[in-house]
Amino acid sequence: MATEPGRLGSRLRTTLLRVSETRGAGGRDETLADRERELDARQAELRTREQHADAREGRADERDRVATERERIVAEREEATPRVGGEVATGAGAVVGGRWRLDELVATGGAGLVWRATDQRLQRTVAIKIMRTGLLDDGQALKRFRREAALLARVEHEHVMALYDVEVSGDQLFLIMEYVGGMTLRELINEHAPFPADVVAAVGGQLATAVAAIHARGVVHRDLKPRNVVLTDRGSLKVVDFGTARHLTAELTPAARGQVAGSPAYLAPEQVEGRTGDQRTDLYALGLILWEAATGRRPFAGDTDTATALARLTAEVPDLLDLGATDSQLLSEVVTGLTRSDPRLRFRTAWEVVDALRPLTSGRAVDLRAALNESRGRPAT
Prior knowledge:
Blueprint: H1 4-77, E1 95-96, E2 100-108, E3 112-119, E4 124-131, H2 139-154, E5 163-169, E6 172-178, H3 185-192, H4 197-216, E7 219-220, E8 229-231, E9 237-239, E10 246-247, H5 269-272, H6 279-295, H7 305-311, H8 320-323, H9 329-338, H10 350-361, H11 368-375
Antiparallel strand pairs: 1-2, 2-3, 3-4, 4-6, 5-6, 7-10, 8-9
Helix pairs in contact: 1-7, 4-6, 4-10, 6-9, 9-10
């Protein structure tokens, strides 16, 4: 019986140890549950934010549709209209600033209308972006318009649309820009994709040099996508539309405003999460464009813009080589290096991308129009 207390003590220690282990496991389970709840809350917040953004875009699209229809009616019914008060007529045939004649309405956007026009002094075709009259009292729209002018003026490059002048007439504002006629990269991809590896590399090289020039001026585009790239008559690409561009040193806080700049299909993961974007945000979008050119489709898809944007938070962009979309290991590695979810793992600069793609183009300039026609067995036009 002398050993009984020792046995009891041993059993007590064993029991206490089991209780402690049980409590520890329970604590870990509670911690994991807390983290899951936090992630669920974050996902719900992102969905709510995107739903609000979708609703705003829907309203903006409807306003654009109505405004475009109104402008087309005016263009059909009116020729040059005399100045009335402080406002300048903007129908077909009207002259802006005593110099630029409006010829054809070619595009509409959230902040303005774009006309093909004639510079009657220099006898050349230009593009004129006109601030919407209804938005002149909107401080944010006016700020975006002025910012676009300032940013365009900073960049001079063969693959970036040039800004010629800024005109203020009465209560209206005008950007006079280089006219870039031709198909958008969106239309080219729809018609020709998938592109051969050397053509994808040529697209990447031209866009990367444009992005490098933009970044060199301290600007991040933040809305690089096929619709914002145009193929010129010379067979080269130009980046257009700086409506959401921001200066790299400016404070970027879209989450604080409940807004995410850019198009859902081409957002980088950090943009989806509402974090600050930098030049690597543009590189991610460039990678998505090249992936789409090589495959003919987008890497992420969803029933809604929200689902499409959120998909990149849980998966990496598929490898082109693994998909059988290309035989070029180099092209596959470049696209993968552009589209890493973690910005720290991407290429650091656009010039690194240019250098990486150079072996696929032999460092020569490529006429993309001719190259695409040749790849389809058609004569260049």
